[in-house]
Amino acid sequence: MTATLIDGKAIAAELSLTIADAVKRVTAQHGIEPGLAVVLVGDNPASEIYVRSKTAKTAATNMRSMLYKLPASASEAELLEVVERLNQDPTVHGILVQLPLPPQIDSRKVIEAISAAKDVDGFHPLTAGLLSTGLPGIVPCTPLACIMLAKKMHGSLAGMEAVVIGRSNIVGKPLAQLLLMENATVTIAHSKTRDLPGVCRRADLVFAAVGQPEMVRGDWIKPGATVIDVGINRVPDGNGKSKLVGDVAFDEGAQVAGAITPVPGGVGPMTIACLMLNTLTAACAQNGIEAPSIR
Ligand code: NAP
After folding, report:
1. pLDDT for 224-282, tens place per residue?
2. Among 8, 132, 143, 221, which has the minimal tally of Cβ within 10 Å of its Cβ?
3. Sign (positive/negative) of CA torsion 74, 80, 84, 87?
C-alpha cells in the first residue's frame, strides 16, 4: 500500500473528545444538557448496531441519550405521535429516527414531521434548502464527515476537482453542496453517467457513495488522488461468514491513491462524531447561545 490511510476512527475519537469538552463547558456555563432522542422501529439487526453505537457515543460526549423503541408493527400514526412529543420536549435538542422504517411507514412523512431545529441527521427539506442556498443550518452528518476527512488531508479544497459518485438526498447531493462551499469544482456522477471510470480519473478528490461493493477500481483513480469511501456493503467473506467492504476496491485503490479511507473505520465513525457535533450545535441554537467553534 502506498496511499496514506485516513484513519477515520482515530480522527473521530479526537473530535469526540473535543465535543465532550465543549459540552461540559456549555453545561457548566449555561445549565443546558444537550439531549439526543433516537427512535428505533422494529428489530433490523444493522439498525440495532447503529443505534447502540449512537447512544453510547451520546453518553460518552457528556450528552443525555434517550432511546425510544417501537415494535416493527407500529403504525405511521404511532411514530408521528412519538416524533411530535419529542418536538415539544425542551430537554430534547436532537431527534433521529433510524432508517430504514418498516414498509407501512412513509419515511418522507416522518422526516418532514421532525422539527427542522431538531433535525440533527439533516434530512429535512428545510435543512436541505438552507444548505443549498448557503444559509446557516444543520449540515447532514455523513457529508460533513466526508468534508472533514478530506480537509484533514488538504486543509483547503479550493480549486480541486471533486467527483461525487451518487446523488442521494442524504449523501451525494448535500456533499456536492458542501464541496461547492469549499470552492471545489464538483461533478456529480450517477448510474446514467457515461464513462464513469474516465470521469473519476479526472478527480483530485473521489467520494464514492453508491452502495455497490468495490465498484471503484484502482485504474479509475488518478495517481495521488484522495479517495473517501462512504459505502458500507456486507458481502460473503469466503469462509461462510460476512464482512464489510466499501464502494472502492480498497487494495487496488490504496496502490494508486495519495490517501484513502478504509471501510470499516473511515467515514462511519466520523459520521457518528458529526451527529454529536450537530446535537451540540442544535442545543446551542435552541437556547440562543453561540455554538463552540469546532469544525
Ligand atoms: P442510495 O440512496 O442508494 O444512492 C446511491 C446512488 O448511487 C444513486 O444516486 C445511484 O444513481 C448511484 N449508483 C448506483 N449504482 C451505480 C452505478 N453502477 N454507477 C454509478 N452510480 C450508481 O445510497 P445512499 O443512501 O446515498 O448510500 C450510498 C452508500 O453509502 C451505501 O453503501 C450506504 O450504506 C452508505 N452510507 C454510509 C454512511 C456512513 O455513515 N458511512 C451513511 C449513509 C450511507 P441513480 O441516482 O442514478 O440511481
Report:
1. 999 999 999 999 999 999 999 999 999 999 999 999 999 999 999 999 999 999 999 99
2. 132
3. positive
pLDDT tens-digit profile of 47-89?
Answer: 999 999 999 999 999 999 999 999 999 999 999 999 999 999 9
Cα–Cα distances in angstroms (integers) from residue 286 to residues 23, 280, 289, in the given order: 15, 10, 8
Please tell me the number of Cα atoms within 13 Å of 243 on its side-chain side.
Answer: 9
- Which residue's CA is minimally distant from atom 19 of ligand 1? 191
Report whether residue 264 contacts ligand 1, using a CB cutoff of 6 Å.
no
φ, ψ of residue 140 to 5 degrees: the values are: -55, 140
CA of 24 to the centre of ligand 1 (A): 36
- Is 230 near ligand 1, meaning CB less than 6 Å away? yes
C-alpha to C-alpha distance for 171 and 186, rounded to whole angstroms? 14
Neighbours of 148 (CB within 10 A): 21
| Ligand 1 site, residue 281, Cβ cutoff 6 A | no
Ligand 1 centroid to Cα of residue 290, in Å, is 35
Which is nearest to 228 in space by CA: 197, 172, 266, 182?
A: 266
Q: Which atom of ligand 1 is the closest one to the Cα of 271?
A: 40
Q: Which of 54, 168, 192, when mutated, tests ligand 1's pocket best, judged by the most ligand atoms within 8 Å of its CB?
A: 168
